[in-house]
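README: folding subset

This subset contains proteins for which both the sequence and a predicted structure token string are available. Records are stored as plain text. Below is the entry for HAD family phosphatase (574 residues), shown exactly as it appears on disk.
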Amino acid sequence: MHYFKALATDYDGTVAHDGVVDDATIAALERLKHAGRKLVMVTGRELPDLLRVCPRLDLFDRVVAENGALLYTPATREERPLGPPPPDAFVAALRAQGMAPLSVGRVIVATWEPNETAVLKAIRDLGLDLQIIFNKGAVMVLPNGINKASGLGAALEDLGLSAHNVVATGDAENDLAFMRTCGCAVAVGNALPAVKEAADIVTQAPRGAGVAEAIATWLDDEPRLVEAAVLRHSVVVGTRLEDRAAVRLRPDRGSVLITGTSGGGKTTLATAILERLAAADFQLCLFDPEGDYGAFDAVTFGDADTPVSPEAALDAVRKLGTNVTLNLLGSSVEDRPDMLASLFPAVLDIRAKYGRPHWILVDEAHHMLPRGRDAGDGINLDAQVPTIFITVHPDTLATGALASIGTVLLIGRDSLDLIAVLSRTLDRPCPPLPERGPEVGEAVWWDCRGAEAPALIAVGKPKGDVKRHTRKYAEGTLGEDRSFFFRGPEAALKIRAQNLSMFLQVGDGVDPDTYLFHLRNGDFERWMRTSIKDDGLADEVATVAANDGLPLGETRALVRSAVETRYTAPATAP
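--- output ---
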């Protein structure tokens, strides 16, 4: 699966030399086009001039002309200005001065140094909201906010592509705006020093030969381009305690496993990571089987009452810039793995076409992707598709999921033992362990494909509140491993309570010996702490259990009150 889907290239000084694109460069562009990549030209030239000098515009899916102000589609010859036309008074003022050369496009006004002083004076005198952009002696006047980056953004929106999945080539200062936004920035050999310094890769060859060199590297060794640019497109997860060095989540290191003790803060850590990925304009798709990510800023499909509509959800995933949460709470616990198995391949097909979503999250991964479902489920967990798996039982994950993992984050003071479990499961040597487990606000970071030992890191909190999703616990269907079972002192019963509402209902109906056995034995408290993940509720129920002088009716009433105070289910939306 290829990460980079398009080339965005400047014209003069990059693919063209003295206004001409040579045959070898055209052949390289044709090779890239035949490989299924998109081509976008981003130039300061006005369109009539470009049509005159470049006979092979048909190779390009979009052309951004006038330094970002005009979008042109060669296949249809459609022109779309991306800004207002130049003010008549401004053009008249420049012509009244006899300014030469002077060119007026659909949006741009262009001249050459040293005319910038007179241009700036006219802008000030007329009180206009215009900016001056320089390019190797050229002076281009455009509305504020319009440049090659904004123009490329409009072209990519047309094509449904993210800038993260674009290789950009350029040579001059006005190219920096769009090169910096792209997944990999390539400066050709003749580029200005400032452009070379800002680029991820600098070609040996100049101009068109340099572009051809970059294309050859891309098609023959794409990981080299990803590696060169990855630090610009990684996000900081935390800092190592020993040296305060930043620890980064990289899209080229495979999937991420977040694991640890139940109730240890896995969802909180995952939400913080998701926020940082979203802030960096990565598109995200979340498979949320229990409604834990409602606080994350995404378009959500499905709820406790409504199963996910696959068609609507996948349409949203296709939309550029849309983060999507698939809340599977409306499907039965038994059906959720099948929902994942049906939706996951479709999401991967979208990624194969557009390069996004860039990251996928699968919560409760031990249930959604259990061992034994590897064959025939249609899920191809390619290591090049970064996925965040969250589970308390990593050793029960499908082998395909385990094989894709490159990074492990462990949460909870007692989580270190999981490294040995994972080492055996992954058939990798067990590394040296930190001296202690992670405290609150910490995690263990393990690059399990690298040589470094696991390290304690400090992790940040999400900016938004990780809200409790009361309906999930009050009315939803928890799996058997998360449900409470009333068994009684002789283990003669097996009455399942798959949510808090059922827990209260069954608790009112079971015999006194069974109820008090579980209460006094700490079973209620333990279930609420580990499965419901509510320490406050568990503490309150433990206080009730400690008061063994209360009548049974009052005891049941206090437990019910503690639950209902926190978990009164919201009204069903119309």
